[in-house]
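Note to self: keep these together.
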Amino acid sequence: MRLAVLGGGGFRVPLVHRALLDDAGDPAGRVTELVLYDTDRARLDAIGAVLAHQAGRHTGPAPAVRATTDLDEALRGADFVFSAIRVGGPAGRVRDERIPLAEGVLGQETVGAGGVLYGLRTLPVAVRIAERIAALAPGAWVINFTNPAGMVTEAMGRVLRERGLPDRVIGICDSPVGLCRRAARALGTDPDRAGYDYVGLNHLGWLRRITVDGRDLLPALLADTAALESFEEGRLFGAEWLRALGALPNEYLHHYYFNREAVAAVRSAAATRGEFLLAQQSRFYERARPDDPAAAYREWERTRLEREETYLAENRAASGGWERDSRDLAGGGYDRVALALMRAIARGERTTLILDVPNRGAVPGLDEEAVVEVPCLVDAAGARPLATGPVAADQLGLMLTLKAVERSTIEAARTGSRRAALRALALHPLVDSAAAAGRILDAAGGP
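Structure:
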């Protein structure tokens, strides 16, 4: 089975490779060839060295690895395509952050004006990739991790659907599964035994129930301040606010519920997250020598740990300034989600995963084609969203507003319409002025 990774020179690709090495399932459904595609040959060489060292330490079967800067070559014959591209690189992310901050509004990779700017830059490339997949690998399943994941998954899915390939694009994110597992552990429950009622869009969702043997344990967790504030989301939002909500929000909702504090923390930081990652990853790629795989691997591990420890640092500063602990770091892992998804489809192993898929009536109030993030039943036929039941008014209201933002961004990227781009920015609940939205668009060089 062949897996093509788009963005194959990306920093987190070794996590996917590691998951493939650890796959002990049916050999008939195992990835035997890993094709890495990237536009930057130097990055491919650096990551290739890390993968070579990982494979050398592994005693079992390992997929053959090859790298290419030719997209069509990477896609031909692929059974699965994992898209994890970053259009504009880390430098583009820095601009997405700094331009909105100059207007006093949040600049973040996927949230607020920064997310819209990133989408405007990324969507045209993602659509072209989907067109090439339809032409060269029409039987492939596409697993999208490219941010902003919700709108990219929806835009790529439209392309394949128009070509008679419906529901072949599935978005993944590690935030929901990390939240669910941390909450279950706080209850003293095996995360693998629990069921989770989660609803939302990508980076905008809520855990509404945690069930074990038919009993919802979330009310008990919300009532126990010590248990609630023993894990990352509990400390981030605080017990009082979580009890008022009656649900556990995805970590990215901190930007919405504590926007004033989040913006102040970002503006007072020495560097934005993008600036930190740009400097950090530049050092890694400079130091990771392809002729010394062991040294490249050590440098990658050191950099990876630093990256995880500093994740959402500004939000933690805005909520009291606390450090992530080992339990927080052991979240879901997008690599493990991707592997579980591929395994379920390739081997027909039925499982339930929280994924980004077309709604198909699962969430009342959203249309059939709207990509939502909900638990899905996955097997050889793909991923089918499970019905969520009624959604609280505040949750549905935010989802509808953000879906309008996503679709205006998709329209602007497809048509070059300034009106659509301005609408996407100005309608975002974290942008408080249509005039500021226009200035942000102009500064970014948008349509």
